[in-house]
Design goal:
The chain is an alpha+beta fold. It folds into 4 domains: 25-37 and 279-347, Beta Barrel (conserved putative lor/sdh protein from methanococcus maripaludis s2 fold), CATH 2.40.420.20; 41-51 and 195-277, Beta Barrel (Elongation Factor Tu (Ef-tu), domain 3); 62-81 and 165-193, OB fold (Dihydrolipoamide Acetyltransferase, E2P) (Beta Barrel); 87-160, Helix Hairpins (Orthogonal Bundle), CATH 1.10.287. It has 6 helices and 24 strands. Residues 284-333 form the CzcB-like C-terminal circularly permuted SH3-like domain.
Length: 348
């Protein structure tokens, strides 16, 4: 074939070629966006708390000589957390033990003397007054021995105060001391909380609280840091009102195994009431979302072609998420975002 003719046919062939992805118009799985009716919810700010949170403080004075845990460590009940210098207490306990031994020896001597005096009195060699004096000395020695024994037990108990142990299984939340610090009675040494029992405390206006608590199933707790919305297992209304803010405190228990942490921000979602409790919203499946860096969007079908639309999202409910801006009712939502994304890359 003539080379010139071949060169002339190449542009015609290229113009007639169509990529396989565009050779036939694809059939898309779509969903017509229609506003869904969902309950209006009032939101009240709250905070995650631990039902059991303990500040362990020193009962005696002493330098911190050992710290067996770190911040965030999980500990078991009875586990050693910290140890204070107990040398002075140990020496005091040993001195008390020695005094107990001396008191017991004095008691034994007084008892023997009293028994001899009883025998002499029975034989008529001593007066009743001498016997009474021996009995009094014996009782005094016995009382002194009991007092020394109690003091020794108290000294031994104080040596145990130099060992700080966990009262229950939990997580170390705060550790405000370091090795060498001086512990004083009442000074906080460590904060421990139980991660298995968490709750959310939220303040509710008195006027709304006066209407009574709704059904537990209608209350929800939003945890923005975790991207979760959970249902409380129990709700408690405290019988006191804050005179400054005119609010009532509610405590709502989180489900067991929650990944929330004390101090995290939370929201109480309170169900609306009356005719204004319903409002139409747009909801899309979470599987239809695509993410590009910090932006999130969906694909809609425009004139038979997929078009990426950036959206602003709101709350999540199950497998659906609320769309606040970027879409409108009646548009065709593509349910195959990955396929639409690949097609866009081919057509570029």
């Amino acid at each position: 074939m003539n080379a010139n003719l071949l060169l002339a046919l190449i542009p015609l062939a290229l113009a007639a070629w169509v990529p396989p992805a565009l050779a036939a118009e694809p059939t898309w799985r779509t969903q017509t966006l229609q506003p869904g009716t969902v309950p209006v919810e009032q939101r009240f700010e709250g905070v995650v708390e631990a039902e059991r949170q303990t500040v362990l403080a020193a009962q005696v004075a002493g330098a911190v000589v050992e710290i067996a845990v770190k911040l965030g460590d999980r500990v078991k009940a009875g586990q050693l957390l910290m140890r204070l210098d107990a040398r002075a207490a140990e020496q005091g306990a040993q001195a008390s033990e020695a005094q107990v031994q001396a008191a017991r020896a004095g008691l034994a001597l007084a008892e023997q003397s009293f028994q001899r005096q009883q025998q002499l009195r029975a034989q008529g060699f001593i007066s009743q007054g001498a016997l009474d004096q021996a009995e009094a000395q014996f009782k005094s020695a016995r009382a002194q021995a009991q007092a020394q024994l109690a003091a020794a037990q108290a000294a031994r108990s104080q040596t145990a105060w130099h060992r700080v142990t966990a009262p229950y299984a939990g997580v170390v939340a705060e550790l405000p001391v370091a090795l060498g610090d001086m512990a004083l009675p009442g000074r906080p040494l460590l904060t421990l909380f139980d991660p298995q029992a968490l709750r959310v405390s939220a303040s509710l206006p008195q006027a709304l609280a006066a209407q009574g608590l709704p059904a537990l199933e209608s209350l929800r707790i939003e945890l923005p840091a975790l991207g979760q919305t959970v249902q409380p297992t129990r709700v408690q209304r405290l019988p006191l009102a804050d005179p400054g803010s005119q609010t009532v405190l509610l405590r709502l228990d989180l489900p067991a195994g929650s990944a929330a942490q004390p101090g995290q921000f939370a929201r109480l979602l309170w169900p609306g009431q009356g005719a204004a409790a319903e409002t139409p919203r747009l909801w899309v499946p979470q599987t239809a979302l695509v993410q590009r860096a910090e932006l999130r969007g969906v694909y809609v079908l425009v004139q038979g072609q997929p078009q990426l639309r950036w959206v602003r999202l709101g709350r999540s409910r199950g497998t659906f998420v609320e769309v606040l801006a970027g879409l409108k009712a009646g548009e065709q939502l593509l349910l195959e975002p990955q396929r639409a994304s690949r097609l866009n890359e081919v057509t570029r």
